[in-house]
Amino acid sequence: MKTEVYLVRHGETEWNKLGKFQGSTDLELSEEGIRQAQCLKDRFQGDFDYIFSSPLKRAFHTASIICEDIDMKPVIVDEIAEINFGAWEGLTLKDIKEKYPEDLHAWRTDEINGPFTGGELSTRNASIRAKNAIYDLVDKYQGSKIVVVAHGGIIKAGLIGLFNWRMNMYQSLNLNNTAVTHLVFKDSPYPVIMSFNDTGHLEK
Asked: Is the pLDDT of residue 54 over 90?
């Protein structure tokens, strides 16, 4: 039985434009983010069975726009909220490098845990949370097309957990706003990646 999962990053926010770590900070979509979400709606055209969202505004608003023309509402799943980056939230990478140089180096290079300063404490903790949430949805809704609207950090962490990658693979993955990552789950516990960071809908 084939189960399809579309992991979708939310639309742009003002902090995205500034390059700031958002994490658990609950920000609204920018005007551009709303436009991007409307492009997602046109892309999916309601061709899915279930849609789930992080509880954070930027993700839930994106998911709600995807559902505007269909008889469906996004269901909140707390476990797919963005990584809580603790002291790094509201800072740019440049800021973090200046204030927490040793912590940043450890996060970028550590293969086992990927520790950071406060919050959720590590990429590993986030990867376990995200992996379990994705497997739970796949188990409950086998044979379905599932859209999961979340965040760049937690989606990357989820992929690391699903494929048992080293934690510093986080630094090698890039997800743009409203990027779609398509996974197919069959008999194996490991999904097949059909597409990654797909933003073709923004080019139309």
From this structure: yes
Tell me if residue 117 falls in helix, strand or coil.
coil
Read off the tokens for 191.
Answer: 């999904």
- Determine the Cα–Cα distance for residues 184 and 164; give it in Å rounded to an integer: 17
Which amino acid type is present at position 19?
Answer: G
Summarize pLDDT for 121-159 with one digit per residue, the tens: 999 999 999 999 999 999 999 999 999 999 999 999 999
Tokens of 45: 């055209």
pLDDT at site 23: 97
Q: In what order do the strands lie in the sheet with 3-9?
A: 75-76, 50-53, 145-150, 3-9, 180-185, 192-198
Residue 37 dihedral angles phi and psi, to the nearest 5°: -65, -35
pTM assigned to the model? 0.97
